[in-house]
Amino acid sequence: MTRLTLAIDAMGGDFGPCVTVPASLQALESNPHLHLLLVGDPDTITSLLAKADSAIRERLQIIAAESVIASDARPSQAIRASRGSSMRIALEQVKSGQAQACISAGNTGALMGLAKLLLKPLDGIDRPALMTVLPHQQHGKTVVLDLGANVDSDSAMLVQFAVMGAVMAEEILAIDRPRVALLNIGQEETKGLSSIREAAAVLRASPELNYIGYLEGNDLLTGKTDVLVCDGFVGNVTLKTMEGVVRMFLSLLKSQGEGKKKAWWLRLLGRWIQKRLAKKFGHLNPDQYNGACLLGLRGTVIKSHGAANQRAFTVAIQQAEQAVRRQVPERISARLQAVLPKSD
Amino acid sequence: MTRLTLAIDAMGGDFGPCVTVPASLQALESNPHLHLLLVGDPDTITSLLAKADSAIRERLQIIAAESVIASDARPSQAIRASRGSSMRIALEQVKSGQAQACISAGNTGALMGLAKLLLKPLDGIDRPALMTVLPHQQHGKTVVLDLGANVDSDSAMLVQFAVMGAVMAEEILAIDRPRVALLNIGQEETKGLSSIREAAAVLRASPELNYIGYLEGNDLLTGKTDVLVCDGFVGNVTLKTMEGVVRMFLSLLKSQGEGKKKAWWLRLLGRWIQKRLAKKFGHLNPDQYNGACLLGLRGTVIKSHGAANQRAFTVAIQQAEQAVRRQVPERISARLQAVLPKSD
Lengths: 344, 344
Hints:
Two copies of one chain form a homodimer.
Chain A: E1 4-9, H1 17-30, E2 34-40, H2 42-48, H3 54-57, E3 60-64, H4 75-80, H5 86-95, E4 101-104, H6 108-119, E5 129-135, E6 141-145, H7 155-171, E7 179-183, H8 194-204, E8 210-215, E9 227-229, H9 232-254, H10 264-281, E10 292-295, E11 300-303, H11 310-325, H12 328-339
Parallel strand pairs in A: 1-2, 1-4, 2-3, 4-11, 6-9, 7-8, 7-9
Antiparallel strand pairs in A: 5-6, 5-10, 10-11
Helix pairs in contact in A: 1-11, 5-6, 7-8, 7-12
């Protein structure tokens, strides 16, 4: 395995370096070939590295950044004022070839705009899309996109998302002829928004894709499709709804073994039950699959949840490692040429 | 308590009379003041009434209908060809005053179109909205709308939904100055679709409403708001996503006590755990809160899930009883006059 260098926007996210630095150390520990460029305020980052093992510390380099893009900044303004920010400098490492991918938990709109500006979309892609891989009930996985990069997606964009999703399912999940579905409010052809119906017509006429039709929200985790395509607004709300419900269940399960007035054996039993259930539902825990991949660019960019904890941010770094190993942008580019309609 | 008569589209839904007839009998059993008009094929309905208690049978009347609107029919075509269908005749019972409300598990688009045509929207309402009351984590409840009556909702419609939702929270949930939020993909003012931002501006400027801002999908069940407003496409996908995840969890919990090779005491323990958890999570079971209310009409119409089982359809009938008792259309109408901007 060869050397792998990733750039981390150390200042992004709700907790900034307090999460990104320990997560970086954890990622370095678990992969001896990994090198990280931590972009941000050198003093803060250095103070958080105090206890790091020196062998691990050697594979980590700090790159100074003067500013941070606020998570509630308007993307257009943030991009204009982005020079010197940790997010921009991290992306520039990818552009210049110093790093092979960038990971940020910062402002989604700014990340997507800056990534598009600096790394450029692939030929045939109008706008990049945020994709994630969700675990499903059958213990397989589903590629879902767009998760919020584009609040308004027309039919052409939905078709591009479908192509990129299918490539991801083939390359990352090793699924042959992955099933592709559009998220809609009914399974009948006449249902839903016109953009979805138009995209369906194009997908049905594309023998290169294994298009299976519409799926509804309740099929998100059932494993009925390998790729689920929707616009960014719906995808974002859907993903967050799912996460909210899963987290609520997990927290209710956790409280299962608690309570003051219980006998010791009931408390012990409670804890045993809790452990068993955690094992059973653990693969659905949102922290396990943090990290949405910004697809359609000439480079790899991973967006972590703003609220990611250390474990979740480590998972995002590992997603970046995997995306680089699998040469995701190169493979999408190659497939796009074959599938997308020629513009000339 | 006075006599209450409801019209049931006995043929609608995935299971038709096999669910609607037993559910009707169950509803009649639990409320001695209830009378039901079952609209559909007399032979099928009669055969399913064979074992019914005669005292209950007396409060039930069959109204013959020649046809059924298919659940996958295009609403516009279905409405044109609706004369003589069970759904239309059931709605006509409300229009003529024979019934005080109508319940159907049939084609949502057709139900909404026919209801609008026959019962007419209230003054100030462009299009009716589907509303439901969801249980949340704090064991309170949240009013959510629109759930799919309008796939594309402009800002004026979102404002109307907010007003109707607030009235419902006051009247049905007895909440004083209910909090009203818009579902969006971020909490910052600049986020989301322009229709949502425009609606937010109007709501912020309405002292009659207790508008609290944007909420995201993960807050659907947290109880941070009493009323959650979104367009019909997003609402439908969100609700179904939530239901899908909840059902998955409940089914995983159910399988908890199963397994062939287990010792008898483990199996017993498993069943005990299952019972405890079912109690803990039971209030989130989608079957418990079936029945979306079509708001904004001069009459009460309840849409049941197409896939509702007997228990769920009974809940929908009980929702109709409650809506009639609370005089929902009258109260919405009164409040609309005060809150909505005058058109002239």
